Amino acid sequence: MKLETKIAHWGLGAVLAFAHGGAEAAKAAPASLQEMWKIIQQQQKEIEALKAKAGENAALKEEVKALKEGKEPAAGAPPQAAEAAVSGQSAAKPVGAKPAKSESERKTDILATEVEKLKAQLFIPEKREYKSQYGLGPAASQVYRVNRGLSIGGYGEAVYTNLTANKGDRKDSADLLRAVLYVGYKFNDWIILNNEFEWEHASTGEGPEVKGEASAEFSYLDFLLHKNANIRAGLMLMPMGFINEIHEPTTFHGNRRPDVEQYIIPTTWREIGAGLFGQIVPGLQYRMYAVNGLNAKGYTSAGIREGSGGGSLAAAENWAFTGRLDYVPSFAPGFLAGFSTFLGDAGQNELYLGKKASVFTQLYEGHLQWHWRGLEMRALGALGYVGNAGLVSAANGETVGKQNYGWYTEAAYDVMPWLWKDSTQYLAPFFRYEHYNTLAAVPDGFYNDKSWDRWIYQVGLTYKPIPNIAVKADYRNYHSVGSPQPDEFNLGVGFIY
After folding, report:
1. pLDDT tens digits for range 246-259
2. What phi, psi does 480 have (nearest 5°)?
3. Which of these, 284, 392, 374, lies nearest to 338 by C-alpha position?
């Protein structure tokens, strides 16, 4: 080896030794030139080993290329064939035995096996991380974390309900509330398809049982362009409240979703449209969409819930706007504050007692959340208005509130660290108080059903042996000005995957 080549290799070895062992040098610097020379020699050996490995990789690439072109590798024939060629005789084979694989076939099989392993790791990672992204629940966000291709997840929840007071002619029940499948596909680093397919109440089949339904809860495309502005289009969840977007059973307390987020904010509320989402500045996130409007023909005394098109031949004569802002400050970990709104005409060019009318519908919502150590707190309030409520009430045959409102507060605390210090499990008693009124103001001359003015006191316990599974027990005590509602004890289980 020439002197300049040796010097170059020594220099390269010294640089690598410095880069690789910078941290180690702080611990034990070489005491003499002899020790430094040993380090350089060791680095030289590592460089030669890396060169040899690179040569092997290059040779393997050439061999794969040759195999693809239908050529034999340059390394030659298998040992059995070589021996037969030298002796001038055919290699003896047992009668009926399969011919031995050539070296190239053997290597091809090995390569195929390795490729399949890589595919499996690509589509079904060995370890899954569960966290919410872009306004979706932990399981629904899985598609954002795969490298490429297909993503599968889902959730389910089942509950037993025992009516304990004011039961009347109502029956206790056991119900598979939901079984949900998330199917996503990541086309590349910036185009993502995400779908949620839901089966409710275990069956949509024939028979005397109460029917469930199968539906697409969402089906949209995300175009991830920039952290400040990304595009979403398709059947989308309305970005209102806590539960409508993030409704997986491990993310909320109680077996049933809060009534405020069912009657005042319809859940699960989805419409077809397109819009933008991202962050304005670090910690300040937004989502805003243009979507098909509600249809006031579906409004009832229970609220605006049945006015949603849900992506099923939805009326789109009128369009609406929905938007949300969330602030998550870096100086207060676990704290979130935000608000959202939905504004749009729900008349949809329909006739109300022979007239076309504007039914401008407004819904405003604000929310706070704080997680600090084992403490969890939530508060939410919502206020809605319906234009031309008198005409809609007369046309629909029941009172539709021209104003509605609802709010709730909730607190929970994980006591498991006090019971079992080193446990990774979770056990939290919780309390929730709700008040809502879907007929807070009614049109002149229409009956105000006071049974829709409700207070709910709820206590319960949530146990998670692992973060993916929640076992829940809760008791809900109802109060209303009008006809009494049944109290209920609920026991259930929910899971995500």
Report:
1. 999 999 999 999 99
2. -150, 155
3. 284
325/342 same-domain check? yes
Is residue 398 domain-resident? Answer: yes
User: How many Å apart are CA 479 and CA 497, to the nearest integer?
Assistant: 37
Do residue 168 and residue 44 come from a single domain?
A: no
Asked if residue 492 lies in contact with residue 462, where contact means CB atoms within 8 angstroms, the answer is no
Residue 464 lies in a domain: yes
Distance CA 19, CA 457 (A): 63
Domain count within the chain: 3
DSSP 410-445: EEEE--HHHHSTT---EEEEEEEEEEEEEEEE--TT
Q: Counting runs of H as helices and runs of E as strands, what totals does the chain give? A: 7, 18
The H-assigned helical ranges of 78-196 are: 79-87, 103-123
Distance CA 284, CA 265 (A): 23
Give the Å distances, CA to CA, from 474 to 179, 193, 459.
Answer: 21, 37, 6
Query: What is the percent of the chain with per-residue pLDDT over 70, rounded to a whole number?
Result: 76
Whole domain around residue 110: which residue ranges? 61-74+103-123
Same domain as 263, residue 185: yes
Query: How do residues 487-496 score in pLDDT, each as one tens digit?
Result: 999 999 999 9
Greatest alpha-carbon pair distance for the chain in Å reads: 111
Contact 324, 340 (CB under 8 A): yes
Burial class (CB in 10 A: 0-12, 13-18, 19+), 108: middle
Do residue 163 and residue 112 come from a single domain? no
Assess whether 215 and 260 both reside in one domain. yes
Same-domain pairing of 329 and 242: yes
H-helix or E-strand containing 278? strand 270-281
Greater pLDDT, 43 or 192: 192
203 shares a domain with 66: no
Q: What is the CATH number of the domain that holds 387?
A: 2.40.160.10
β-partners of residue 294 are none
Asked whether the beta carbons of 389 and 442 are under 8 A apart, the reply is yes
Kindly state the DSSP code that residue 53 receives in the 8-state scheme: H
